[in-house]
Structure formats: structure tokens, C-alpha cells
Amino acid sequence: MSSDQLIWSYRAQVIGIIFALFFLVFVLNLVRNKRLLEEYSVLWLLLSIGILLLASWKGLLLKITKICGASDTTSILFFFGMICFLLLLLHFSIKVTKLTNHARDIAQQLAIISKNRSINDSDSEGETEKNNDTESPQ
């Protein structure tokens, strides 16, 4: 490896570590300000710790690359990034499905309550008119 490649490799590693630390602090700040639920923060914290590990421990990334049979470490990073995002998309799709079903159930319950209330209101109005008719002298 030439000295330019070593400097670039070192710079890329430092940039990766800085990015991972920034992302970790960002996620922690979102949780602290209650803008991100703890349920989701675990996913993002694990992702940022994984990025930090891979950025700071280059030997680990090289071992994973060799085990997978890839020719370059960037292709492994891209592959695992795609896997992470696919898993996140699947997780959020499941959550959206549950919320959609819950919203539909609530809307149906509200419709039933409204229907029952309008029936009860019309029955009570009919009784009031009936009572007024019987009480009024003619």
C-alpha cells in the first residue's frame, strides 16, 4: 500500500468514526427529547454502534469481507447497509399494518356508538313529544 492509500484509509476511518459518534449522539438526543420512542431507539442505537465498530476496528471488517468472499470492504458495507434498511422497512411495514387495522377498528366502533346515540336520541325525542301531547289540554 502506498502512503497516499494509507492516508486515505486513515481519513476514511476517522470520517466513519466521527459519523458514527455523531449519529449515536443524535439518536440519544432524540430519545432524551422524547421525539423517538425507546422501542425504536434500540434499533438505531444498535445500528450506530455497529457502524462505530466497523469504522474503528478495520480488522473486523476485513475478516467479514474474507468470510463472505467479497473482493472489497465497501461492497460488504453496502450489502449490510441494504440488509439493515430492508429489515427496518419490514419492521415499519408491520407497524403501519397494525396501526391501520387499529384505526379501522376505532372508526368502526365510533360509527356503532354514533349510530346507537342517534337511535337513542330519536327515541327520547319521540317520548318527549308523546308526553307533551298527553299533557297538553285541548
TrEMBL record:
Positions of the UniProt region annotated as Disordered: 119-138
Transmembrane segments: 12-31, 43-64, 76-94
Basic and acidic residues biased stretches: 127-138
Keywords assigned by UniProt, alphabetized: Membrane, Transmembrane, Transmembrane helix
Keyword Lipid biosynthesis: no
Protein name as annotated: DUF2304 domain-containing protein
Organism: Candidatus Schekmanbacteria bacterium RBG_13_48_7
